[in-house]
Each structure stands twice: as C-alpha cells, then as structure tokens.
UniProtKB/TrEMBL annotation:
The lineage of its organism: Bacteria, Bacillati, Actinomycetota, Actinomycetes, Kitasatosporales. It holds the Pfam family Flavoprotein. GO terms for biological process: coenzyme A biosynthetic process; pantothenate catabolic process. CTP binds at D298, K308, P326, D327, V328, L329, F346, K360, K364. Gene3D superfamilies: CoaB-like (3.40.50.10300), Flavin prenyltransferase-like (3.40.50.1950). This is Coenzyme A biosynthesis bifunctional protein CoaBC. Binds 1 FMN per subunit. In the C-terminal section; belongs to the PPC synthetase family. In the N-terminal section; belongs to the HFCD (homo-oligomeric flavin containing Cys decarboxylase) superfamily. The gene is coaBC. Its cofactor is FMN; Mg(2+). Its EC number is 4.1.1.36, 6.3.2.5. Residues 25-193 form the Flavoprotein domain.
Length: 420
C-alpha cells in the first residue's frame, strides 16, 4: 500500500532527525463529537503501519463509539478515568511513554481544556504529562470554530508548540455546511507520521504562513483542447502536507490536480498560468515563504477558438501562434511584498541539469532552486524524486532518490534556516 511504503521510506529521515525508529507509541485521544466514528479509520491506519496505539476517549466520546470498538482495533484496553488501574498511574504514565499524542476529533471544549491546562479526565491528564509532539484535529460547527474564544485557544496551543490542523470545509452535522469538518483520516495520518519522523516537539514553522503551488497549468486552445504538461502535483502536495505538519499555515495553489486536499491546508484551485499568478500574488502578500513547485506553462495560444476546431479534408490546420505567459517566479522574486520573504523555485530539466539550473537561479532571482531531471517516465506522476537544491549563496545540496516527502522535508529545512 502506498501509505505503508511511504512510512517505511521515511524511517531513514527519522533516523537523521532523531525521531522514533522502532514501533512508535501513539496516544489517540478522542473527544465527544459526531466525527468520533472517523477516528476508527485513523486508528486502523496507525496500527496497520506499525504503530503501537493506545486509545484514550473521553466519556462523551463513548456515546458515539463504544469502548469495545477501540479495544478491538487497538489491541489495548480502553479507560476514560484516572481511577482505572490506579497502581499503574495511567494519568501520568500514558503521556510520559508516548512518542505522539493526536486528538481527533478535538472539540471546542477539548481545545479549551488543553489551552487552559484543565485535567478532569484521563485524556486531559495525558495532555499535561506528554512531552512528545501533540497534534489536534478540530471538528465542530463553523460558528464554534470561528468564535474568538476558540481562536484564542488555538493560538495558545500553537504558540506552545502543538500542531493544530485547520478543519476542512464541507458538510457538517445535519444540513449545515462550512469550515469545521474533520479532515480526512488518511490526511490526518499523513500529518502524524510526518510529525513522528521529525522527532521534535517544537514545530519550526509555527506562526509562519507559507504558499505552495502544485500541479500543471493548462492553456485552452478551444472548448475541448488545451496545452498542458505531465505534472501530477504530487511534489507540491508533499510540500504542503509537510509544512502543515511542521506547524505552518499553508495556502496551496493547485493547478489541475486529482489529489485529495491535504489536512490543515487551504486549497485554491486554478487552471491557467494567469489564474495561478493572480492566486499566488494574493496569497503571497502576507507569506513568509513561497514555494513554486507547479509546472507553469511558458506559453499560451494567442487566440482562443470559441468552438471546437474542426479537421478539414484536404487542408492543413492553421498554425497555432503562441504568446508568453507571465513569469510568476521571477516576478515575486524581484518584487517581494514582505521583507525577509524566502522564495523557492523548481526547475525541471531534461539535459545539462545543473548548468541550466544555476543559470535559471541567477535569472529568476529566487533564494533556492530545486533542480531535477524529468522525462516521460521520470519524476512526473512518480512517488519518488531526486534533486539538487541550489542556493543563491552558492550552496549546493544533493537529495538522493527517495520519496517526494523526504525532498519536501529537505526543502523546508533550508527555508526554516533562512527564515531564522
């Protein structure tokens, strides 16, 4: 399975960063919301990928999913009170022994208790004693999420080093819809394993806003045809997921991708290079870093045919005249809306990779340029990548062949270092 392979590949990164390399101990906290049933899928992902998971539900959570379900899926007994198995001191030991604590769903009540250090059950006691990374996946109605009290509690938790994932937008309880939906369990799992792989308790991008572009733009020729490229968006999505796991507020500008929205990421869908430019400039206005991983078309047809271009017997087709698209990377590098902003570009090359990369770095004026060799069966659509990260300071960092998320971690390492 793709997620299991990715987890295994990240063990090398975990070793370099000092993260757990054995069977990581994870505490899955479940608070009392209707989304509690979705945590069963998250639990399955964690256990089947080699994690030792202890589920700690609140008493209210057991109204939605019973203790027998949690015990059967985790292989551990389930308790909600500090008075169970007192001789093992569970209210202290569970948090002390954990490599990661993830609370999904995290209700407004749970976020408030965690922010104010309340400890009236086993889960809140566990949160106080944990010295490992902590991830909260909120789920509640939009009004509750947007309430100033909840926003202040979230800000407090993030300031202390917790990763609080932004909730998704979608259908809520009943007929309501809006921001507050629990992110997809598979995407929460992606955040958890990235946090575990890093093995640090302080997210180095906390309080930062980063913008990532992904995918490939398409330039319409007529209502059914377009000029495009082979980019799948997987590298950009890996960058977005990784930044979210490192505590950043992430805006992902996605061009023609077919990938699920990463947990905790604001996704803006675009189609053409001009649309991408508008979205990037808007999002970059208050961003600390911009990573341009999308494959942006250099050219577009000069004219757009409002009807499908027909093939005419005995006649050659009219030539397609191309005009240049805006150079978004060069534009934001030259005119940065914020002092100290770090700009990262990507260069997909087919020959003379490093020479072309260095020339492009000088021409674009960005701080970092990730250069990789591409081809019909290389990089595009693959789960793997190999690259060299070139710096405007003359640095050159090779990244060996491996999962795209490992390259993403390296890129953010370099960005975090420059952000200071």
């Amino acid at each position: 399975m793709e997620w299991y392979v990715s987890f295994t590949a990240l063990q090398l990164y975990a070793e370099r960063r000092g993260g757990p390399v054995g069977k990581p101990k994870v505490v899955l906290g479940v608070s009392g919301g209707i989304a509690a049933y979705k945590a069963c899928e998250l639990l399955r992902r964690l256990t089947e990928s080699g994690h030792d998971v202890r589920v700690v539900p609140t008493a209210s959570a057991l109204n939605f999913v019973g203790a027998a379900t949690w015990s059967a899926l985790s292989g551990h007994p389930v308790a909600t009170e500090v008075w169970s198995d007192v001789h093992e001191v569970p209210h202290v030991r569970i948090g002390q022994q954990a490599d990661l604590v993830v609370v999904a769903p995290a209700t407004a009540d749970m976020l408030a208790k965690a922010a104010h250090g309340l400890a009236d059950d086993l889960l809140t006691n566990t949160l106080l004693t944990a010295r490992c990374p902590v991830v909260f996946a909120p789920a509640m109605h939009t009004e509750m999420w947007e309430h100033p009290a909840t926003q202040e509690n979230v800000a407090t938790l993030r300031r202390r080093g917790a990763v609080v994932i932004e909730p998704a937008v979608g259908r809520l309880t009943g007929a309501d819809s809006g921001k507050g939906r629990l992110p997809d369990p598979t995407e929460i799992f992606e955040v958890c394993r990235r946090v575990l792989a890093r093995g640090v308790t302080e997210p180095d991008l906390a309080g930062r806003h980063v913008v990532v572009s992904a995918g490939g733009t398409r330039e319409p020729l007529d209502p059914v045809r377009f000029l495009g490229n082979r980019s799948s968006g997987k590298q950009g999505y890996a960058l977005a997921r990784t930044a979210a796991a490192r505590g950043a507020r992430v805006t992902l500008i996605a061009a023609n991708t077919a990938l699920p929205d990463p947990a905790g990421v604001d996704v803006v869908q675009v189609g053409t290079a001009v649309q991408l430019r508008e979205a990037v400039l808007k999002a970059a206005a208050d961003a600390d870093a911009v990573v341009m991983a999308a494959a942006v078309a250099d050219f577009r047809p000069q004219t757009y045919a409002t009807g499908k271009i027909k093939k005419k017997d005995g006649q050659e087709p009219d030539p397609i005249v191309l005009v240049r698209n805006p150079d978004v990377l060069a534009e934001i590098s030259a005119d940065r809306p914020r002092a100290g902003q770090v700009i990262v570009g990507f260069a997909a090359e087919t020959d003379d990779v490093l020479a072309n990369g260095r020339a492009k770095l000088r021409r674009k004026g960005c701080d970092l340029l990730v250069v990789n060799e591409v081809g019909e069966r290389k990089t595009f659509g693959s789960e793997q990548n190999e690259a060299v990260v070139l710096g405007s300071d003359g640095s050159e960092l090779p990244v060996p062949y491996g999962p795209k998320e490992a390259l993403a971690e390296t890129v953010w390492d370099q960005v975090a270092e420059r952000l200071g």
